[in-house]
Design goal:
This protein is an alpha/beta fold. It has helices spanning 30-42, 62-76, 91-104, 121-134, 145-148, 154-160, 176-186, 198-203, 214-229, 233-250, 255-265, 282-294, and strands at 14-17, 47-50, 81-85, 108-112, 139-143, 166-171, 189-192, 208-211. Helix 6 runs parallel beside helix 7 (176-186). It is globular, with a radius of gyration of 18 Å. The two termini are 34 Å apart.
Length: 299
Amino acid sequence: MAPTSTSQTPFGRVLTAMVTPFTADGALDLDGAQRLATHLVDAGNDGLIVNGTTGESPTTSDVEKAELVRAVVEAVGDRAHVVAGAGTNDTRHSVELARGAEQAGAHGLLAVTPYYSKPPQEGILRHFTAIANATGLPVMLYDIPGRSGVPISTETMVRLAEHPRIVANKDAKGDLGRASWAIARSRLAWYSGDDMLNLPLLSVGAVGFVSVVGHLVSPELRAMLEAHLQGDVAKATEIHQQLLPVFTGMFRTQGVITSKAALALQGLPAGPLRLPLVELTPEETEQLKRDLAAGGVQL
């Protein structure tokens, strides 16, 4: 059974968008996934996203996705919310993934805006509604126009929030003004999906984070969040500024690439990448080490 949820924090507060560990020959590493999930929850995550972009969802099969959900739920499902990515640019396929995730034991769904096809807002509305209607699981929308090509408008957010199972949004839009209006009007639980904006989004009403750097600094993210909740603005700002080199370093290139490289440097399960993603060069690895060291990360 998933940890207790509230309407304000339906998926917890600190979630890491977890990489999918692979073996040396590129196969799914379920043992490694369970060990990594346990490490992340021990480090302060009360939720994990599996089968998201950082989990290399474009290159894992539907069978692998279901196996990964089952493995992570088995490892940490009694201590953390396990949220499964189910978004594609094919509504029928997304519905199938949502049902598969529910059958595998997921506690919630993450559904990204349909990418590449650039549907109008009515198509976006119907797409997310179909996913929410497909299962009994709560749904977190994922608004990332830099990848999808189209934003979820505030009006669409407000309409989607009327659905009883659409309860949250992961915001990677990078627009605090639009976020402010959408939070106020939709009353969705708002999660930062852009690590550099974790603290600023808290200030306009976000309840937590869906983080990539959480692979490395979950305790610090938790401390920043707690300081903000307790009204200690100076402490929250201090932690935010301490983490700036980490935020910068982890996104000098694609976040999956840097996450797996950093985990490998720490001796944690990660494994290779699947094409078209490729490993860091030796020079990029040295730069990542410098960035992480500047942010206080021990390697």
